[in-house]
Structure formats: C-alpha cells, structure tokens
Amino acid sequence: MNLLELSKWRYAAKVMNGEKVSQDKIDYILEAIQLAPTSSGMQQFEVFIIKGDELKAQILPIANNQTVVTECSHLLVFASWDNYTEERINEAFENMFEKRGGKDERWDAYRQRIVDLYTNKPEDINAEHTARQAYIAFTYAIIAAAELGLDATPMEGFDADALDKLLGLDKKGLKSVTMLPIGYRAEDDWYGTFKKVRKDKEVLFTELD
Ligand SMILES: Cc1cc2nc3c(=O)[nH]c(=O)nc-3n(C[C@H](O)[C@H](O)[C@H](O)COP(=O)(O)O)c2cc1C
Q1: What confidence tens digit (pLDDT) does each residue in 108-127 have?
Q2: Distance 46 CA to ligand 1 centre (A)
Q3: Which of 14, 76, 156, 190 to mutate to test the pocket of ligand 1 (most atoms within 8 A of CB)?
Q4: Secondary structure (H, E, C), the chain
C-alpha cells in the first residue's frame, strides 16, 4: 500500500486484541522515529518503550482508563526536553560533529546562534518547541506502524504530570507529550466500523497566486 492507502487503512484503534508484536517490527518503528527530522537536528525528546503488564496497568488510570493502554503489545511514551540548556544543545551538536568526523566551522557557528537563541527564551516557550519536535517523530511512528500492518493509537488523553512522576521523567528533565499504544486492532473494536471523516479539500486547502 502507498502512503494514501495506508492512511485510509489506519485508524485510532480503541480496542486491541492483546497480540504481541515481534521485536523486528518494533525495531523498524523505532528506526523510523530515530530518522525523523527535528529542528536543527537536535532530537529534543526521548522515547520510552513499555512492555510490562504491571507498568501498563499503573498507566491505565493515568490515561483516563483507555483500555488500549493495557491491550496493546508495546506502549511508546514520547517525552521532550523540559527546556533548552547550553549543555543539551552542545551535546546534540557534539554528537553530529563526532559522527561526521569533525567540527565544521559553519555548523559550529550555527550551534552558538542556537545556544544564544534558546537559552534566552522562557522555559514554557522552549518546552512547546521541543514538544513539537516529538510530534514529528510520533507521526513517523504512526505511519511506520501502518506500513507493517500494525495499529497505533495516537494519544494525548492522559495526565502528563502523573505519568512524568510514575516514570521518573521529571527527574530527567523530560515532559511526556504523547503515548502510542502499538498492537493489533480487536475484531470487535466498535470504532473500526466508523467511517473515516476528514474536512473537504475545498475547506482545508486554499490556493493563493
Ligand atoms: C495528538 C493526538 C492525540 C490523540 N489522543 C487520543 C486519545 O487520547 N485517545 C484516543 O482514543 N484517540 C486519540 N487520538 C485519535 C484521534 O481522535 C484520531 O486520530 C482522529 O479522530 C482521526 O481519526 P483516525 O485517526 O481514526 O483516522 C489522538 C490523535 C492525535 C493526533
């Protein structure tokens, strides 16, 4: 299936059947996340992969009792930096320098501009910016899952502060942004019978000359 066909096949499953997803498929999704573009290439987020039933059960009430959290095979939690710091920015750029085989003067000058820009902005603005980067990778994961015939339910209907405490994300300077339960839709998922509805193209798109 091409991208449009996959986009029509996938939907936000509300009930999964508990079947486990193989590690090679999970690895494929994680690599898609790894390859997603981010602002300045800094990958301002981390992803936590939850497999254990006990931890999923603890997350269930935090996620408004959306049962897909416990019915899924793997539950991904996308958590982004709570703020920019010089250290975090430098670390991201050092990783690029190291893997590209040395420091490039132009890219190093750009690094300094990024440090000056973000370390002078308010924390909440920065946290919103880093969260937006996580959403890009989140989207990649949803598409990658569909390509493998897997269901992935995009979720932000959870208590982020409670999840941060449970997973110790606050201590790591991270804030949970989204969750992505991955698995297989249940045959009797009531939501699967719903027609996929989107805005009409004339409403969504405006051509300007
Ligand atoms: C950022 C985001 C957050 C969402 N949060 C939830 C959620 O917490 N629970 C849920 O059942 N669906 C959630 N959804 C699914 C949307 O309701 C769904 O994607 C939308 O209605 C379009 O339907 P479709 O994905 O089935 O085509 C979320 C989707 C996105 C993109």
Answers
A1: 999 999 999 999 999 999 99
A2: 21
A3: 156
A4: CCHHHHHHHCCCCCCECCCCCCHHHHHHHHHHHHHCCCHHHCCCEEEEEECCHHHHHHHHHHCCCCCHHHHCCEEEEEEEECCCCHHHHHHHHHHHHHHCCCCCHHHHHHHHHHHHHHCCCCHHHHHHHHHHHHHHHHHHHHHHHHHCCCEECCECCCCHHHHHHHHCCHHHCEEEEEEEEEECECCCCHHHHCCCCCCCHHHHCCCCC
Q: What is the pTM of this model?
A: 0.97
The answer to whether the CB of 192 is under 6 A from ligand 1 is: no
**Does the beta carbon of 9 sit less than 6 angstroms from any atom of ligand 1?**
no
What's residue 199's pLDDT? Answer: 98
